[in-house]
TrEMBL record:
Stretches assigned to the Fumarate reductase/succinate dehydrogenase flavoprotein-like C-terminal domain: 430-507
Alphabetical GO biological process terms: NAD+ biosynthetic process
InterPro entries the record matches: FAD-dep_OxRdtase_2_FAD-bd, FAD/NAD-bd_sf, Fum_R/Succ_DH_flav-like_C_sf, Fum_Rdtase/Succ_DH_flav-like_C, NadB, Succ_DH/fumarate_Rdtase_cat_sf
Domain of life per record: Bacteria
UniProt GO cellular component terms: cytoplasm
Domain (FAD-dependent oxidoreductase 2 FAD-binding) ranges: 6-379
Keyword check for Oxidoreductase: yes
Pfam families in UniProt: FAD_binding_2 (PF00890), Succ_DH_flav_C (PF02910)
Protein name (record): L-aspartate oxidase
Cofactor(s) demanded: FAD
Length: 519
């Protein structure tokens, strides 16, 4: 028997939890999450959340900075909404049990590349963890919200009239499937950079929401824009993710040098270390390639020791564990896949092209980031558009839910998933994405990458038929779908713009267009 709820949320990061928190005023909410409640990209955010709350700042200035960083591709109405509604919502967030850093009784505001004002609200260097804990506490104290941990959303449920009316999920602990029906499904499944070999994202970031929405018929947009963070700790992986060294470290004055001590960023951009992320990542890539280096160095010498330890205690402690005292030594760093700018196409209210299906946060594409996201704008985007989605979703009524597709019944579920086989296919997929859809791309190579992803899909299908709904297999299938969508979008863009650089097309075309893919 299906379970009924009013609102169903997939994902317990910033977007999913804020949406659930808001919807609890209107009805019963179930939040599904595929691991522990706090495991999400949100939980690892370091730098902070950008909002124009400073005395010398305004939403207009924040809007202009965002648009300038977006290389002509930002949707201005979305940026206006985000920068205008952001400050009020961040104040509401601050009023929850979240301990943002303060200076003389006021929010301490950091600065990162591309921002012309100090506007990055943070909790030292563990901002995401503070937000995550504060929101989980708020959500858990609501009688109307139930949080289901270790529940993997397998597929969306589509009614005969084309609307989305629920989801199939798999309980990883009990091994049971559940069909959940609801007025609204909110996909807040976060990022997809876990499909790259080197990434700052935790392994849950496999693009499940994008793949599910695509299978159900939703449009996706601008998936070619993958942001590579310039500075992840070279050679260090923590539970499968590269350890991030926040851009805020450069914001406080740290410099990038080659191992022989030469500072190189001034040769690449007038803003040097504070240039937009795409420029810094490409400059590092170039230094690594031309000088045959394994890493470059992040030199914290210009920052006073006391300030380093106060502002970046977690980074200092983690580096210390790996043998680096950041008050004395430089940190070896390399770029890593960090953020997906593109995603499921939504309007200004979080609505996708399918009735009843909403998306917010990193899995959605609202258009605020254009071709290059400004640091610390993604937590803000997740908050603002989850909030707007909650306002729109409260007006939704139950639709007919005569189900078009039957779900994963026992007979179609084969549990003989061979983990070593799945892991090996998964590693091949990640290596393919790193090699063929990386920081510097070539059309010829991207086509090879697409072919390789198609081969991996065939290998998987030959081993496990499509009606196998085992989560490990389903997740790998999602990764391969998303990998193909990224490469397909990247091949369609015959220019270099922001994060997308193609050797055959080094220039930006005069007209900016979005890459919309329809199933
Ligand atoms: P997430 O926080 O990633 O949450 C996704 C949720 O969906 C998770 O709970 C996951 O378990 C769940 N999920 C996924 N698939 C399924 C499924 N099939 N079934 C059930 N559940 C599922 N941005 C900033 O603005 N400022 C920063 O300082 C910053 N620092 C960052 C540092 C790091 C290391 C990383 C990785 C990212 C950082 N970002 C930062 C980006 C930002 O953290 C994310 O874009 C943002 O947190 C995304 O929030 P979200 O709610 O969309 O998704
Ligand atoms: C960082 O702290 O450098 C990450 C900020 C972001 O990705 O917005």
């Amino acid at each position: 028997m299906p379970i009924q709820t009013d609102y169903l949320v997939v994902g317990s990061g910033m977007a999913g939890l804020w949406f659930a928190y808001r919807m609890a005023r209107h009805g019963k909410v179930i939040v599904l999450t595929k691991k522990d409640d706090s495991e999400s990209n949100t939980n690892y955010a370091q730098g902070g959340i950008a909002a124009a709350v400073g005395p010398d700042d305004s939403p207009e200035i924040h809007m202009n900075d965002t648009i300038k960083a977006g290389y002509g591709l930002c949707k201005e109405d979305a940026v206006r909404v985000m920068t205008k509604e952001g400050p009020g919502l961040v104040r509401e967030l601050d009023a929850l049990d979240i301990d943002f850093s303060e200076n003389s009784g006021r929010l301490d505001l950091g600065i990162e590349g591309g921002h012309t004002k100090h506007r990055v609200i943070h909790a030292a260097d563990t901002t995401g963890q503070e937000i995550e804990w504060g929101l989980i506490k708020a959500v858990r104290s609501s009688e109307n919200i139930t949080l289901w941990e270790h529940h993997f959303a397998v597929d969306l449920l589509k009614g005969n009239d084309g609307n989305c009316c629920g989801i199939f999920s798999f309980n990883r602990e009990s091994g049971e499937f559940t069909e959940i029906r609801s007025k609204v499904v909110m996909l807040a499944t976060g990022g997809l950079c876990g499909i790259y070999e080197h990434t700052t994202n935790p392994p849950i970031a496999t693009g499940d929401g994008v793949a599910m929405a695509w299978r159900t018929g939703a449009e996706v947009e601008n998936l070619e824009f993958i942001q590579f963070h310039p500075t992840s700790f070279y050679g260090v992986k923590l539970d499968g993710r590269a350890f991030l060294i926040s851009e805020a470290v450069r914001g406080e004055g740290a410099l990038l040098r080659t191992p022989d001590g030469t500072r190189f960023m001034p040769n690449y951009h007038p803003d040097a270390e504070m240039a937009p992320r795409s420029d810094v990542a490409r400059a590092i890539y170039n230094e690594l390639r031309t000088n045959r280096l394994d890493y470059v160095l992040l030199d914290l010498e210009p920052i006073p020791d006391k300030h380093i330890l106060k502002r970046f205690p977690m980074i200092a402690e983690t580096c210390r564990k790996f043998g680096i005292d950041i008050t004395r030594e430089s940190i070896p760093v390399v770029p890593a896949a960090h953020y997906s700018v593109g995603g499921i196409k939504t309007n200004l209210w979080g609505q996708t092209s399918i009735k009843g299906l909403y998306a917010a946060g990193e899995c959605a594409h609202t258009g605020v980031h254009g071709a290059n996201r400004l640091a610390s704008n993604s937590l803000l985007e997740a908050l603002v558009f989850a909030d707007r989605a909650s306002r729109a979703a409260s007006d939704e009524a139950y639709e007919d839910c005569s189900v078009e597709k039957t779900g994963p019944f026992e007979s179609s579920f084969h549990s003989m998933e061979d983990p070593s086989l799945i892991n090996s296919l998964c590693s091949s997929a990640k290596q393919t994405m790193w090699r063929y859809a990386g920081i510097v791309r070539s059309e010829k190579e991207m086509k090879k990458g697409r072919k390789r992803i198609a081969e991996l899909r065939h290998e998987l299908e030959a081993l496990y038929p499509e009606r196998n709904f085992s989560p490990g297999i389903k997740q790998l299938r999602n990764m391969l779908i998303v990998g193909d969508l990224i490469l397909r979008s990247a091949i369609e863009r015959k220019e270099s713009r922001g994060l997308h650089y193609v050797e055959e097309y080094p220039d930006m075309l005069p007209e900016a267009r979005h890459t919309v893919l329809k199933p």
